[in-house]
Each structure stands twice: as C-alpha cells, then as structure tokens.
Amino acid sequence: MEIGVVENGGVVGGEVVAGKRGKTPQATETFEKVATIGVVANLTVYLVKRFNIGQIEAANITNIFFGTLNFAPLLGAFISDAYLGRFKTLAYGCFASLLVCPYDDQTISLSSFISPAWQQKEMQGFLIIGGGAIRPCSLPFGVDQFDKTDEEGRKGLNSYYNWYYGTSTAALVLSMTVIIYIQNNVSWPIGFGIPTLLMFLAIIMLFLGTNLYVHVQPEGSIFAGIAQVLVASFKKRNLKLPCPHDINQQGLMLYNPPSKGNRVFRLPLTSQFRFLNKGAIVMGDDINVDGSARNSWELCNVQQIEEVKCLIRIVPVCISGVLCFVALAQQFTYIILQTFTMDCHFGTHFEIPAGSVVSISLIALTLFIPIYDRILVPIARRFTGVESGITVLQRQGIGLAISPISMVVAGLVERKRRNSALSNGGISPMSVLWLAPQLVLMGIAEALNAVGQIEFYNKQFPENMQTLAGSLFFCTIAGANYLSTALANIMRKVTTRDGHSSWLTDNINLGKLDYYFYFIALMGVLNLIYFLICSHFYQYKVMSLHSEESIKVPTKEEEATEIDIDTDAPSK
After folding, report:
1. How much is the pLDDT for 241?
2. What are the transmembrane regions (predicted)?
3. Fewer CB within 10 Å, N or C, the chain?
4. Are 569 and 560 in contact (CB under 8 A)?
C-alpha cells in the first residue's frame, strides 16, 4: 500500500519504508533527551552540593529551568509551521544542542573565552533553543512518514506513539544512571561530554535519511488563522446562520472551498460552538473572482472554523494534564532531596547517586510500555473494538487515577522516613529503595497519561496544527513545573502563619513534606473529577478524505461509536 503523500509532486515510499523513515526523527529526539537530561538531570544535586544553595530554592530553580525548557517548543512550533518546516527546524535544533560541551567543572558552550557566569547562561540558552526546536517537530515529522488512510498504517501509528515515548524514556534512564554516575564518581566534563557525542550521532542519523523523508511544507502561521476566525465571527455576530436546524444544509451554504496545500483530510461542519460558523457566511463582495476570500479577516472557510473548534475542545483536557504532571514533577526535586537523608547503598560497595533514584520511575515506564502495547492492548481490543485497545481519553483517565495514589504512597513513606531520621541523628537507616513503590506508580501513571496525551493531541489536532500539538504536550509539563514552584512558595507562606513551622524547609526532617504530598494527592483527585466531566462532553474529531465529494456528519449517538480516520472511536 503506497503512502500516497505528495512530496514535490511525486508519491513517496511505501508502508515499510514509512516505518523506517519514522525511526530516524525518533532517534534524533532520543539522543537530544540524553544530551539535555544528561546535563540537567543532576541539577538539583549540583546546586545543593556545588553552590550550597538551599534545598527548597534549588528545587524551585530546577522547576523554573525545566518549565522554560518545556515552554520553548511553543515558539519552535510557530517557526516550523510558519517558516522553516519540520525537517529544517529539527536540523537547526540539533546543531544548537550540539553547541553544549564540557569544560572543567561546568558545562558551557564552545565559546569558552567568555566568563563562567555567561558560560552557564549560554549553556542554558543553547539547551532551550535546541529542545524548543527538536521536541515539537520530532514526533509530527515521524508521523508524517505513515499512511494514515490505511488501516495497517493507523495500527502502526498507534504502536509508534508507545515506542516513541518508550525509547525516549530509555534515553532518560541512561542519563539518570550511567551518565550521572560518571558525573559524580569519574569526571563532570566526561559526564557532560558523552551527551554531546550522542547529539553528534543524532545529527548524522538525521541527515542520512534526507532523501527518503516525506517533507510537509510550511503553510504559514496557524496563530494568524485562529485570530482570523475569531475576528470574522465577531464582526458577523449579528447575522443569522442559514438553516440553523440542518447542519448539513448549513454547510452547503457557507464558504467552504476545496482545501489546498498538504491536507489529506477534510473536517465537516459541526453544530458545537456554532457562533463561530458565522465567520463563513458570505456577504456581497466577500469572494474574489477566483473563489478566494477578499479579506481573510472578514470571511473564513469552514475548515478554518472547524480547526479552531478542535483547539477549543482540546484546551480543557490539556489543563488536566498540567495538574497530573505536578505530581510527576516531584521526582526531580523533593524526592531527590529525600535521598540525602537515606541509605543509598545498593549492596556492600555500590552507592546509588541521589540523582539516579528517579531512574526507578523511568525503568518502570520503559518496561510497562511494551507490556501495554503487546499484551494489554490486544486483549482490550477484543472487548472494545478500538484499534488502540481503549480510547486515548480513557488511557489518560487511568493515569490520572494512579497519580494521586502515588502521592499518598509517597506521603506514607516520607512520614516513616522522617520519624526514622529524627530517631537516628538526622540520617535515616532506611534504604533508598523504600522510594521505589511510589516511583513505580509514577512511572505507570506517566506511561498511561503522558503517552495518552501525546497520542490525543496528535490525533485530535487538525493536520496543519500537528507541530503545535507536539509543543502543547511540553507546555503542560512546563505549566506543571511553574505551578509546582508557585505551589511550594504559597505553601511555605501559608503553613508558617501563627508561628507554625513550614511544611517545606531546607531541612526536610523539620518540615511536613508528607502533608505536602497529601495535598498534591487531593488536587489530583479533584483534577480527575474535572477530567471526567471534560471527557464526558468531549466530541472526537470526525474527518473524511479530501477527495470525497460528500461528508457525513454523524448524530450525537453515532459520534460515540463512529470509526473515522485518525480517531479512537470503536469500530461498528
């Protein structure tokens, strides 16, 4: 079965070739994450041990840096869609990440003639630029290589989402174990140099497949299109929609010219958020002789309007992802701080580095994904008829349910650790492996919710917003990092009222970190309820092939069971 995607006027590749093409951008982000996490995974430990920064302040700095790193993909998505395209943006991002290399006890850019303070800022800048370019483009560029009009291609794509996140997480495990061990016990420059070498290999792999890729050309800024729909609808807010009770007939009377550019699918007109439909009402001289809109800020087509509707539907679900990652963000901050007062020995001679403890969660995630993809999904598919076993919203919901459970377990373990530490002069004889149960639960929650988010965004966003879909996932992580910082600061102020000691202190033995974990668990429960409400009212995207003359709009009952291209609805 041929891919059927046109590249510079020709049909490119076949189904098998597509799978091979999809692996190269996946490898690119895998090595990028080794490079980035290899530098910043030990950041909390580095700030506390090297710069004697207070533990709470170090946790806040780590959260803010990770937040900035994960917000950068939003800008990268804009540049990719509007100007460069995904491949060029990926390439520039790889070179930016490569410019981080080791020097003495610091990680700096190749410009080693400047002062150490500026070297640190320049290092962070290159990491943010590189991550901002690679992360939003890597997954959509890999998805471009698959045939989404074919059943086998869609099944392969479902697995691709799982293995994409699985291999990326395996890279994190490498960073959190081997590289951190080298940094702590061998040499900081060597520990930072290995990620640089891997980034160089990623660039070679990316360019080796240049002639095989399907290249989707940029179509201009999607943000301008979103603004045009909102403005046009507002300007025509006083007009009446034609055939208000027959959405199919209404669609025939609104402006809906043939799609142009790289789009393979069309979105039918829907009645949800119908006030936006007014932006496609044709008035007088709104249309030029060639059929184009005279002024895009006064007349939009049905496709533009439905794309904005897709975005509006997704945003409430996206918010629930932010709160889920607040729990997962604790792995890189307070859980690492717990290890400072625990027995980190594994056996007689080996001591687990504090920054490597998080790898337990990542290992659990890496092991769970193939079990889920190869065992649980086929079993679930027999009962549900859904290609992916369960819908992406159901997958996210299960992850959201496990997340607060992990925080309750974390609180129970912390209470035991604190009591043990206070009884033994500040250092608990408890093994650091007591943290394993909560970390395993966090890993499983992330495997379900995070991969579910990635798949959800890439399937439910319109075709021309795929790069934005890739960036939105990282924005949820960024939002969680910033929210974690704000939450910690607020909690310190609130809990110190009336002379009480704060829940969060630089000496965690004197605080109430378990109460903080319980509070996050409570937020997780409320977030799960919010998510269930959002998912109940969510309408999955319905599409048809661009070549089809007629477009069937399912009724509300049919939408629950309709199997449409690129959706998770169960087959009839």
Report:
1. 92
2. 163-182, 188-208, 311-332, 352-372, 472-491, 515-538
3. C
4. yes
**CA angle (54 as vertex; 100, 44 as ends), nearest 5:** 35
Domains of the chain: 15-219 (1.20.1250.20), 222-300 (no CATH), 308-548 (1.20.1250.20)
Long-range CB contact pairs, 415-418, < 8 A, 24+: 415/514, 417/338, 417/341, 417/342, 418/508, 418/509, 418/513, 418/514
**Which residue has better confidence, 530 or 264?**
530
Is residue 553 over pLDDT 80? Answer: no
pLDDT of residue 172 exceeding 80, the answer is no
Parallel, antiparallel, or unpaired: how do β-strands 6-7 and 10-11 relate? antiparallel
Span 231-277, pLDDT tens digits? 999 999 999 999 888 888 898 899 988 776 555 577 888 888 999 99
Non-local (6+) Cβ contacts of 499 within 8 A are none
The pLDDT score that the predictor gives to residue 167 is 74
Sequence-distant (6+) residues with CB within 8 A of 257 are 291, 292, 301
The residue type found at 29 is: E
Contact 142, 102 (CB under 8 A): no
Closest CA to 194 of 179, 172, 204: 179
Q: Which amino acid is at 408?
A: V
16-36 mean pLDDT:
55
Cα separation, 132 vs 69, whole angstroms: 7
Instruction: Report how far residue 279's alpha carbon sits from residue 269's, in angstroms, rounded to the nearest whole number.
Output: 12
pLDDT at 33 > cutoff 90: no
Strand partners, 266: 544
Average of per-residue pLDDT across 381-396: 87
DSSP helix/strand/coil, 179: helix
Q: How many CA atoms lie within 13 A of 311 on its CB side?
A: 22
65 CB-near residues (< 8 Å, 6+ apart): 40, 43, 124
Query: Helices (DSSP H) in 256-332: which residue ranges?
Result: 302-329
What's at 28, amino acid-wise? T
Lowest mean pLDDT among 129-138, 149-158, 210-219, 533-542: 149-158
Q: Cα Rg for the chain, rounded, in angstroms?
A: 25
Among 42-56, 358-372, 391-405, 444-458, the range of highest mean pLDDT: 391-405
Strand partners, 351: 345
**DSSP state letters, 265-284:** EEPPP-STTGGGGGGG---T
Q: Is the pLDDT of residue 521 over 90?
A: yes
Question: Which residues, 6 or more positions from 125, have their beta carbon under 8 angstroms from its beta carbon?
Answer: none
């009222």: which residue's tokens? 497
pLDDT digits (tens, 9 = 90+) for 287-296: 888 888 889 8
255 in Cβ contact with 301 (< 8 Å)? yes
DSSP-assigned states of every residue in 420-455: HHHTTTT---SBGGGGHHHHHHHHHHHHHHHHHHHH
Whole-number Cα distances in Å, 45 to 101, 169, 339: 20, 21, 10
Half-sphere exposure of 138 (CA within 13 A, CB side): 32
